[in-house]
Amino acid sequence: MSERASVPKEEEETEPETEQEPVTTGAQSVIRALENAETDYVFGVQGGAIMPVYDALYDSDINHVTMAHEQGASHAADAYGVVTGDPGVCFATSGPGATNLVTGIADANMDSDPVIALTGQVPTEFVGNDAFQETDTVGITQPITKESYFAADSDTVGDDVSEAFALADAGRQGPTLVDLPKDVTQGETEVEPGSPETPETYEVPEEADDENVQEAAEALAEADRPVILSGGGVIKADASSALREFAKEYEIPVITTMPGIGSFPEDHELSLEWAGMHGTGYANMAISNTDCMLAIGTRFDDRLTGGVDSFAPDAEVIHVDIDPAEISKNVYADYPLIGDARNVLRQLFDAMPRAPDADEWRDQCQTWKDEYPMDYDTPDDEPLKPQYVVEQFSEMTPDDTIVCTGVGQHQMWASQFWEYTEPRTWVSSHGLGTMGYGVPAAIGAKLAAPDQEVVCFDGDGSFLMTVQGLSVAVREQLDITYVVLNNEAVGMVRQWQDGFYEGRRMASEYPWIPQFDKLAEAFGARGFTLESYDNVEETIQEARDYDGPSVIDAHIDPGENVFPMVPSGGDNGQFALNEDHLDMI
Amino acid sequence: MPGPAPDERMRPKGRRNTQGIRVDPEAEVTHEPRQAVLSALVKHRPGVLSEVSALFSRRQFNIESLTVGPTVDDDTARMTILIEEPEPGIDQAKKQLQKLVPVISVRELEGEAVRRELALVKVSGEKPDDVNAVADMYNGQAVDASTDSVTVEITGSKQKIDAAIEAFKQFDVQEIVRTGAAALERGPKTLEKDV
Ligand SMILES: Cc1ncc(C[n+]2csc(CCOP(=O)(O)OP(=O)(O)O)c2C)c(N)n1
Predict the structure, then answer these.
(1) Annotated region Disordered: where (chain A) (predicted)?
(2) CA-CA distance, A320 to A429, in Å (whole number)?
(3) Which of A338, A446, A549, B162 could make an SS bond with A473 (beta carbons 3.0 to 4.6 A apart)?
């Protein structure tokens, strides 16, 4: 790592742990709070109002990664949080630095990813005066964080950061922010921050009520057509192995949501993969026809449910969630179980009177798998199909390979045609759907898991939104393979225009995009181009072998569309497998 | 691709309503909006009111009124929020409120809770005696008078104040201000302790 703050100090390797110097300023207290919370990395960009904090970071062992844009800092912190399970941290200065973080904070909020954002602020005496680089950061971010703090005092600023850290990680994870006026961080203090603790008003339910669990277990055991719907909350709660045990013991088919990808192995016979707008036909058929759904850690997003009136219409719903406000928010829960997913799964496991009698149902699910396989056309004379590139890459890599994406068609192909078997290997922007997430997310993911392979599937549109992040990947020598599934269009929009706007392709075709292989080389990365089926594996192999960031510019069939598809607000059982079906539903 | 076309597929019999509730033919559930009085204890610090009101606007809960003021404890304030929503919306409002970090506790007050609001009504000063007579009918009193205007204070239920304002219209109402309801549970129950 190239930066001063990240160079390990030599004497430390020989000396045993030394007493920490006492803090003398608010900024040092901020950094001490991060050290106490065992922060390894901070992603950020310098600036006037945050300078005292950076100055205090100079003396710390925390690694700092300078990003090329603050949006990238918040996405990298987000991905770091997704992969490690611990909060990712990002820094920005006041005003434009803070507003540039906003997209990443909103993204983290929608996906319940643990992130803490520390922003510089103008000195307290100027707050409210429209001073240079002032914005009301707390006001802007309050609706998209679990809580935004305004640090008012040098003596308490360390505690504010500690609390923000604990809060980001507690219960349903999510982003928190602390706004740091320059005089507060510069101000003298000898107060050491306390250990990270959540505010007293924040109560986290641990276990569900036993009686409720018993009732729910009995309903599930009675079911003829049971399914488990596993959401992102299963991964957040580190409940994947509990889920696997439960599903296998009671032989219940498992569907995941898109954020739940990786919570259950897609190569297992009970897996129906993921459901929703572009989920598998078999998962959507099972959702439509189940009579009892055990839904865990999902907020029933409309991309999953389609119209709620047609969502799992026959099913009694058992809803497990750590956030009481998720219960019956979108889909009514017949059996609400509020608690940590891992604990509740264990409770349910013990409470099940027997396995449901569901041989017929499992056969039916298998029939759907045979009837609606995930497929695409590959005649050799056609331009390269994106699905083929994803599939080949998936076959060549180890199970724990981490996949990051931008947002669009490529994101759907990367989720459909890659085989996920491990939690925390799928890193994507779900709730907010943020184009540009991929490039910086891959940086955060790689630093979080340096021993795992990291690949980012991106669209040409998404890639261009945060391409400057390549400079960071090059500087930090991060071994990431970026694959741009290049269709010279914002393809997902083009697909909707073709399907629902009579093919009027307003502002969706990008025939002026740069040559991404050359762009990569200009940044100091390796660049490759893929144009046909001939050298797909060979090129992927070369890019993987290169020790540093590489970019494969894959020129894919510009007319390729994503299927299956449940039209927005539609009925999950009425998915289209091709363009013709769209006219029928 | 193989597999039956959309209209040939296995179809479920059930249905849900727009609130995501299964429509059980024996007990069809629809929720009409009703009025609820939510009372919340919150940390008394800058930004709390905006956090709460932003929550309500973001989630599209219709606020009838919202009042806030200090309690006996200097660090806490109490909010009374009147909303009109169908049952699931009221439940969501409570849960979302409870999620906010500065919110200490939330409770929906029962129907018979003591509810009061205050109105100040400024009317023309031409017939002060008549104004006083009407104010008396509503247990109100004149709190300010000049040659051109009389300002009357009325406290009571929303209905009573609505009626009073209606009655004052005969005197050319110049200005009105209303506080919205403040409410407390009857009996010994408080937000801090259940009895
Ligand atoms: C920041 C942002 N702006 C706009 C959109 C709307 N949008 C959703 S998908 C999409 C197309 C993405 O294009 P590209 O990244 O090239 O991927 P493709 O669909 O072609 O694979 C657009 C514009 C968005 N999701 N995010």
Answers:
(1) 1-26, 182-203
(2) 23
(3) A549
Q: Which CATH class is domain B34-109?
A: alpha beta
A222 and A365 in a single domain? The answer is yes
Residue B3 to residue A372, Cβ atoms within 8 A: yes
Average pLDDT over residues B46-53: 91
Q: What is the pLDDT of residue B3?
A: 87
Q: What is the pLDDT of residue A5?
A: 41
Report the nearest-CA residue for atom 11 of ligand 1.
A490
User: What is the pLDDT at residue B1?
Assistant: 53
Say whether A492 is catalytic. yes
Residues A242 and A145 in one domain: no
A327 half-sphere exposure, CB direction, 13 A CA radius:
18
Q: Which fold has domain B114-184?
A: Alpha-Beta Plaits (3.30.70)
Domain-wise residue ranges, chain B: 34-109, 114-184
Select the residue of A324, A331, A371 nearest B20 (Cβ to Cβ): A331
Q: Is the peptide bond before B12 cis (omega within 30 degrees of 0)?
A: no
A215 and A327 share a domain? yes
Q: Which of A421, A462, A420 is nearest to A440 (CA)?
A: A462
Q: Ligand 1: which atom is nearest the Cα of residue A510?
A: 16
A276 and A414 co-located in one domain = no
Q: How far apart are CA A242 and CA A541, in angstroms?
A: 35
B36 against B23, higher pLDDT: B36
The one catalytic residue in A110, A285, A465, A492 is: A492
Report whether A28 contacts A85 (CB < 8 A): no
The residue of chain B with its CA nearest to that of A138 is: B47
- Residue-wise pLDDT tens digits, A342-352: 999 999 999 99
Q: What's the pLDDT score for residue B194?
A: 60
Residue A568 lies in a domain: no
Q: State whether A170 and A310 are in the same domain.
A: no
**For position A521, what pLDDT does the model report?**
98
Catalytic residue among A51, A126, A133, A422: A133
Which position among A91, A121, A163, A182 bears the catalytic label? A182
Place of tokens 């897609």: A266
Q: How confident is the model at residue B195 (pLDDT cuts 50, 70, 90)?
A: low
Residues in chain A: 585
pLDDT at A443: 98
Cβ-nearest to A584 among B3, B5, B12: B5
- Domain interval for residue A152: 24-186
Write out residues in chain A with pLDDT < 50, as ranges: 1-12
Q: List pLDDT tens digits, range A545-580.
A: 999 999 999 999 999 999 999 999 999 999 999 999
What does each C-alpha distance from B86 to A94, A364, B34 come to in angstroms?
42, 39, 6
Q: What is the CATH number of the domain that holds A445?
A: 3.40.50.970
Of B14, B22, B101, nearest to A332 by CB-CB distance is B22
Q: Is A309 on the interface with B (CB under 8 A)?
A: yes
* Residue B55 pLDDT grade (very low, low, confident, very high; cuts 50, 70, 90): very high
Domain termination residue (choose one: A338, A371, A404): A371
Q: What pTM does this model have?
A: 0.94
Tell me how far the alpha carbon of residue A477 lies from the centroid of ligand 1, in angstroms: 28
Tell whether A571 is covered by a domain.
no
ipTM entry: 0.89
Specify burial of residue B166 (Cβ count, 10 A radius: 0-12, 13-18, 19+).
exposed
List of E strands, A192-334: 226-230, 254-256, 271-274, 292-296, 316-321
What is the rounded average pLDDT for all residues in chain B?
91
